[in-house]
C-alpha cells in the first residue's frame, strides 16, 4: 500500500519517487494546494474503496499520515 500511495502521489504531482519519504509534508515539501490534497484523497477513496472525512484532512500532513490513515480505514472496513 505504501508504494502504491507514493506512486499515485508522484504521478499526480509529477515528482520523482526518490523525492518522497514518509516524513515528506504534502503542503510544505511538495507544495500541494488544498485542492490537490482533496483530489489526492478522492483518488485514494476510489482506489481503496474508503471514505476520507473532510474533518480528518487537517490531521493528514505527511505521506506517513496519509498511509496510516488509509490503512486504518481499510482495517475498519473488514
The total of helices stands at 3
**Helical/strand content category:** mainly alpha
Low-confidence stretches: none
Straight-line distance between termini: 16 Å
Radius of gyration in whole Å, from Cα?
12 Å
Beta-strand portion reads under 5%
- The percent range for helix content is 40-55%
Biggest pleated sheet: none
- State the total count of DSSP E strands: 0
- Average pLDDT for all residues: 94
Net shape: globular
How do the helices and strands follow one another from N- to C-terminus? Answer: HHH
Overview of the structural elements:
This protein is mostly helical and 78 residues long. It has helices at 2-13, 34-48, 63-77. α1 packs across α2. The radius of gyration is 12 Å and the shape is globular. The mean pLDDT is 94.
Short synopsis of the structure:
The protein contains three helices and no strands. By secondary structure, the chain is an all-alpha fold. It starts with a helix and ends with a helix.
Topology of this structure?
Blueprint: H1 2-13, H2 34-48, H3 63-77
Amino acid at each position: 500500500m505504501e508504494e502504491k500511495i507514493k506512486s499515485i502521489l508522484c504521478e499526480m504531482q509529477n515528482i520523482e519517487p526518490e523525492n518522497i519519504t514518509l516524513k515528506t509534508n504534502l503542503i510544505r515539501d511538495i507544495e500541494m494546494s488544498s485542492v490537490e490534497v482533496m483530489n489526492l484523497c478522492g483518488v485514494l477513496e476510489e482506489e481503496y474503496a474508503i471514505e476520507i472525512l473532510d474533518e480528518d484532512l487537517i490531521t493528514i500532513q505527511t505521506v506517513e499520515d496519509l498511509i496510516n490513515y488509509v490503512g486504518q480505514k481499510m482495517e475498519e472496513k473488514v
